[in-house]
Amino acid sequence: MVHAYIGLGSNLNNPIEQLDRAIDTLRQHEDLHHVRVSSIYGSKPVGPQDQPDYVNAVASFETSLAPLDLLDLLQSIEQAQRRVRERHWGPRTLDLDLLLYGQETLQLPRLVVPHAFMLERGFVIKPLHDLAPNLCLANGNKVHEQLQQLDTSDLVFIKEE
Question: What is the secondary structure of 8-47 as a DSSP string?
């Protein structure tokens, strides 16, 4: 079993409901165990600003799925919720990103782990902090140390999961 962390995000079609449905699906999946979810936060979009604000959370779980099988599962959940992605860094109904897969570092055509931009994104590190403040990241910082280096002033607490 490997401990994995994923980021969840949405800014279309009732974003909180999109995250709630994805979380329910994760909790019911037979290959994911001990699913925990951070609080949900609102944030300004990365990239084009002519779109609604996002809601974001992080989930953690134990899994026996291989990294690409886990990626396939996450993408199937996105598709089941009729993922819409109009443009790069544009609005979307649901985005599930594999952030961490144990301590593994992967550079595959379809998957990079740890997630390439997670260390610079407060909307990832703040919810990750809710779950694992002392987790050591690839840059050697603990999550709580990384959080202190980020501007999270645009994050808005929405609800506790």
Answer: EEE-SSSHHHHHHHHHHHHHH-TTEEEEEE--EEEEPPSS
The counts of H helices and E strands in the chain are: 4, 8
Burial of 18 (0-12, 13-18, 19+ CB in 10 A): buried
**Which residue is associated with the tokens 């809601």?**
55
Residue 84 confidence (pLDDT) above 90: no
Q: Give the whole-angstrom CA distance, residue 46 versus residue 99.
A: 17
Cα(19)–Cα(142) distance, integer angstroms: 26
Residues belonging to the active site: 83, 92, 95, 97
Our CA angle for 76, 85, 105, nearest 5°, is 60
Sequence spans of domains, the chain:
2-159
8-44 pLDDT, tens digit each: 999 999 999 999 999 999 999 999 999 999 999 999 9
Please indicate, yes or no, whether the overall pTM of this predicted structure exceeds 0.85: yes
Tell me which fold the domain 2-159 belongs to: Alpha-Beta Plaits (3.30.70)
Is-contact 150 120, C-beta < 8 A?
A: yes
Instruction: Using alpha carbons, list the distances in angstroms from residue 21 to 4, 42, 93, 119, 130.
Output: 19, 17, 11, 26, 20
